[in-house]
Structures are given as structure tokens and as C-alpha cells.
């Protein structure tokens, strides 16, 4: 991969929450390790009346709050802050852009823009940038979600951006793709020979993908009420995980090869009819309960009014192609769940015949667990014989073959997803960014589910905070004789 680094970075939303918690600490991490191009300048922009000095103070405070103590090197922080400057901008105001262009100056050495804004502001933003010459050949743009709320609005945004930037200069962010363990799925599948022969409908019974969070609304009512769990977590992050599990082996580790294969998976997702939806989806909303022994409010109480937005969703999905015919993919995500956990569990088919059955030995099918967070490990559950003389029958037990990535790579720092993604944006590597056709296929599938909920008048079922969601989610898999991997 040829690196083509830019000389300037423009960060919209630079004083917001994402910037303070993730972007500035990530950029500092890259700076501290000497990975940012020499001389790269970072111009922050947002509404308000900050200036260079006050923005540097905001950044200093954010680093102080969000960096771990061992990363707080005073000299490196000081030299990082020297890269920063600030230009106020109101994206809804056309006259904002000239001052921005003046502040940024010469962009012949390349400019990367990070745009995280409400969907309604994408259009004025890209048009304004183009007008003042901040969209030419040397400029690439990173787009943070939400990129629309359905297929129609996503197409509108994509068209708007495409009128100014060609696809090879658009970097759509899904931060899950920047996570180390997520990329490890590729290493596991395509760097080892023994899984591939059984990685299909003959070898695999079902796949479960869980992204469970313990946090609740987190002061994001404005956004979350227009999204809900399906669009906040499944349409993007969960489907990206599904694609990495389900895709065919790409020929090369390149942006086109990998994204072509993922896009094929998204296009193969079975689109549900309104009659399919009630049997294949469950929605929930948390009510008061206890998370980590602390009493927390219900969603409606946090909002201050009654809402029908789902904070939990479980879905039985299908990938309709040769490899996956008949294999259910159970997807599940929720806020205020029992534990924070992102995990993929692949359950293999049982052995065709058990020679132990006549001697009392019970077999469980093998399961491969890929734990993404909070811990990082890969665990294969295999059958073993319990020690003993077996005079009362053979006793078999499931035991874990565990590869702890935390332990195996103990000395190596885990970078937050945005470190890698910002560096890829700066250097122009699109492999871990989402292509337009992927996003649109994701929306086709999602919109059909939402249409089914609307047609059936589906309302979320309540579940107490601190649990694994409504009991209907358990029934969704139990009907097929499958149990969620919950321990
Ligand atoms: C974001 C969602 O995309 O991902 C949030 O908008 C969610 O609602 C977050 O909390 C989860 O990310 P992570 O990296 O903490 O699993």
C-alpha cells in the first residue's frame, strides 16, 4: 500500500464530545509515537468563539482527562498542542467558509477533513467547502455517522457528497473496523487453514453476534430518539462484524478486494417481508433496574416522556448464498444490559455420530468465541474426557482452548480504533472505511425491518436494566433449539 500523507487536517466538531474523548487523544497518541507526518497541522473548527489559545487549552484538558497516566508526557503534549489552531465555523452559514479557507491556507500538500455533523448539515458543509476551494484533488473527507436514517436519506447524503468528492476520496467511518480484534477476525479466518473447510453451512450450525453495553442514554436523547438500537448499532457495527465472518476469502488485503467481498454479503442478506419481521425480530426498552449493583433509571424516565424507541434489538438474519444457506445469524445489541460485552460465537454442527452415547458420554457441539471487548480473546470450546477410570460411564466435558490476545501481546499497546482510522485517513488508505454500496445495501435490509415494525404496530417490550433484554429474545433462539452464549 502506497502511503500518501496530507500536510493538513481539518477537524469539524473539534470541541465536541467525540473529539475530546477519542479524536484528540488518538491524534496525540500518533504524534507521541512519531506517526503523524512531520509538520502536519490540525485546525479545529466548531461553532462558538474559541481561538487558537483557548482551543489548545480545551485540548490540554481533554488529554489530561482521557489519556492514561503513563501516556502523559509533558513535552510531547506541548509539542502536540503546537500543531493545533482553531477557526470558528457555523456550517449552516455560507459566509463561514471563506474564513476557514483563509485560516487553512495552501492545501497543495494535501488536506484531510473529518466531518461529524447532523445529517442536515452535510449538504451546506460540502457545498461550502467546494465554493472556497477546500474540495479539490488534494482533499479527502472523512464522514462520521449518522450518514442518514434510512436508504433515501443516506442516498441523498451520498449524492450530495459525491457531487463534490469522488468515492476514492470519501472515507466513511465505522469505528468498529478500527478495532484491533475486529481485524483479528481476518487473521483468524484467512491466516489459518483449519477453519476454512468447516466455515460454511455444512460445518456451522449458527452464528451469534452480541454487542451489549451497560451504558444508557448518556445525554444523547436528540440523536438516539431518531435512531434506536437497530440503526445505532446493527445497521453499521453489527453488520460489519457479520460481513467479516461471512465473506468469501478476498484475493488481496486491499480496499477493493475486501470491500467487494463485504458488499456481496450485504447484498445477500435476506430482506424481510412485513410478515417475516415479528417472527425474526424482538425489540426492547430498558426500565429501571440495577447495573453493576447501582440502581439506574428507565429510558422513559431519563427522557422525561414516553417513547417507543428501542434500546434493545435481537434479530434472526440470513445470508442467502451457497456458503450460508440455512445458517441463522442471531444478532443482538442493547443498552443497560447485564454486562458490557462484544462477542461473536460460532457454533459448529454436532459430530455426525457419537460413539460415546452407549457409555453415557454426552457431547456438546464445538463453539468458537471471539471476544472483542472488554477482554480480547479467541476461545474454542472442545470436548475432553474427565480424568478417571470411567467405570460408571465416560464423562465428557466442554473445556476451553483459549488464546488470550491480552496476554499474548501483553507488551504492546492497544490503540483506540480512531488512532488507526485517523492515520489511515491522513495517509489515504480506504481499506477500513465503508464504501457507498455497502452502506446502501445495509439500509435496504434495515428499512425492511423498520417497515415491518410499522406495519405490525410493534412496540418495544420492557426489560429491567441490568438484564439480557426481554424474554422474547431468549425465545427467538430457543425456538430453534439454540441458546445465547451468555456466561
Ligand atoms: C456508537 C454508538 O457508534 O458506538 C453508541 O452510537 C455506542 O451508542 C458506541 O455506545 C459503542 O462503541 P464501543 O466502541 O464503546 O463499543
Automatic annotation (TrEMBL):
<dbReference type="GO" id="GO:0009051">
    <property type="term" value="P:pentose-phosphate shunt, oxidative branch"/>
</dbReference>
<dbReference type="InterPro" id="IPR001282">
    <property type="entry name" value="G6P_DH"/>
</dbReference>
<feature type="binding site">
    <location>
        <position position="175"/>
    </location>
    <ligand>
        <name>substrate</name>
    </ligand>
</feature>
<comment type="similarity">
    <text>Belongs to the glucose-6-phosphate dehydrogenase family.</text>
</comment>
<feature type="domain" description="Glucose-6-phosphate dehydrogenase NAD-binding">
    <location>
        <begin position="11"/>
        <end position="184"/>
    </location>
</feature>
<feature type="binding site">
    <location>
        <position position="145"/>
    </location>
    <ligand>
        <name>NADP(+)</name>
    </ligand>
</feature>
<feature type="binding site">
    <location>
        <position position="213"/>
    </location>
    <ligand>
        <name>substrate</name>
    </ligand>
</feature>
<dbReference type="InterPro" id="IPR019796">
    <property type="entry name" value="G6P_DH_AS"/>
</dbReference>
<dbReference type="InterPro" id="IPR022674">
    <property type="entry name" value="G6P_DH_NAD-bd"/>
</dbReference>
<keyword id="KW-0119">Carbohydrate metabolism</keyword>
<feature type="active site" description="Proton acceptor">
    <location>
        <position position="237"/>
    </location>
</feature>
<dbReference type="InterPro" id="IPR022675">
    <property type="entry name" value="G6P_DH_C"/>
</dbReference>
<keyword id="KW-0521">NADP</keyword>
<feature type="binding site">
    <location>
        <position position="47"/>
    </location>
    <ligand>
        <name>NADP(+)</name>
    </ligand>
</feature>
<keyword id="KW-0313">Glucose metabolism</keyword>
<feature type="binding site">
    <location>
        <position position="232"/>
    </location>
    <ligand>
        <name>substrate</name>
    </ligand>
</feature>
<dbReference type="Pfam" id="PF02781">
    <property type="entry name" value="G6PD_C"/>
</dbReference>
<feature type="binding site">
    <location>
        <position position="179"/>
    </location>
    <ligand>
        <name>substrate</name>
    </ligand>
</feature>
<dbReference type="GO" id="GO:0005829">
    <property type="term" value="C:cytosol"/>
</dbReference>
<comment type="pathway">
    <text>Carbohydrate degradation; pentose phosphate pathway; D-ribulose 5-phosphate from D-glucose 6-phosphate (oxidative stage): step 1/3.</text>
</comment>
<dbReference type="Pfam" id="PF00479">
    <property type="entry name" value="G6PD_N"/>
</dbReference>
<feature type="domain" description="Glucose-6-phosphate dehydrogenase C-terminal">
    <location>
        <begin position="186"/>
        <end position="485"/>
    </location>
</feature>
<feature type="binding site">
    <location>
        <position position="335"/>
    </location>
    <ligand>
        <name>substrate</name>
    </ligand>
</feature>
<dbReference type="GO" id="GO:0004345">
    <property type="term" value="F:glucose-6-phosphate dehydrogenase activity"/>
</dbReference>
<protein>
    <recommendedName>
        <fullName>Glucose-6-phosphate 1-dehydrogenase</fullName>
        <ecNumber>1.1.1.49</ecNumber>
    </recommendedName>
</protein>
<keyword id="KW-0560">Oxidoreductase</keyword>
<comment type="function">
    <text>Catalyzes the oxidation of glucose 6-phosphate to 6-phosphogluconolactone.</text>
</comment>
<feature type="binding site">
    <location>
        <begin position="13"/>
        <end position="20"/>
    </location>
    <ligand>
        <name>NADP(+)</name>
    </ligand>
</feature>
<dbReference type="GO" id="GO:0006006">
    <property type="term" value="P:glucose metabolic process"/>
</dbReference>
<feature type="binding site">
    <location>
        <begin position="90"/>
        <end position="91"/>
    </location>
    <ligand>
        <name>NADP(+)</name>
    </ligand>
</feature>
<dbReference type="GO" id="GO:0050661">
    <property type="term" value="F:NADP binding"/>
</dbReference>
<dbReference type="InterPro" id="IPR036291">
    <property type="entry name" value="NAD(P)-bd_dom_sf"/>
</dbReference>
